Please model this.
Amino acid sequence: MEKNDWEKLIDSLIKQGILHSPKVIKAMRAVPRTKFLPKDAQPYSAVDTPLPIGFGQTISAPHMVSIMNEALELEVGMKVLEVGSGSGWHAATIAEIVAPREIPRSEYGHVYTVEIVQDLAELARKNIRNAGYSDRVTIYCGDGSKGYPEKSPYERILVTAAAPNMPSPLIEQLKPNGIMLIPVGSVSLFQNLIKVVKEPDGKVKHENLGGVAFVPLTGEYGHQF
Ligand code: SAM
Model:
């Protein structure tokens, strides 16, 4: 049977070495971007580029979500915080890994995701509901640059907008042995994706995963305009 465009894109990400772990591949296959895109962008769902979702914001490119989901070293049962819900798509791909349908509900992990733009928080909620992830993803509207202390600590944190510096509340809300991914850099798109590992004694190690181009993180620990 002829493969659809989404399956072809996943095959290409595997061929490029961007996707390699079976659980991340399975999750990326299970959640095509289409359901999370506005109607006029849906024909481009499988084009490997960020796409507009309204309110001046974008859904990330499939290769970037793949890179982040591989680097997060996600496991079943983990509690994850995402800063920057946007369309809700990235959160849904993570839910597929930390709370797969095949396991008992009592073993589910959970994705908490914070979006600062109220209309987008509502859009993400609607998309998450329509795609069947409401029991595994919770969306809050607020300033995620301060994290979401009410549900902390988290085993994994990902920030999907670029911060000027490492926000200290996010480090505080990361569990020992936890991993955080955050783009850090200027608003003019010169940024690096930083992997932060918090060791058991609370010390943090940083690894630069390379150059990226994200929209700016706003809010208290974000870029000030
Ligand atoms: N993860 C998203 C998805 O799957 O569609 C894409 C995220 S988009 C590249 C970045 C998002 O971060 C935007 O929706 C933006 O409004 C949001 N954002 C920026 N600063 C924020 C903050 N301080 N707190 C929460 N969200 C923020």
Observations:
- Helices lie at 5-15, 22-30, 62-71, 89-98, 118-131, 168-172.
- Residues 116 and 142 are 5 Å apart (CA to CA).
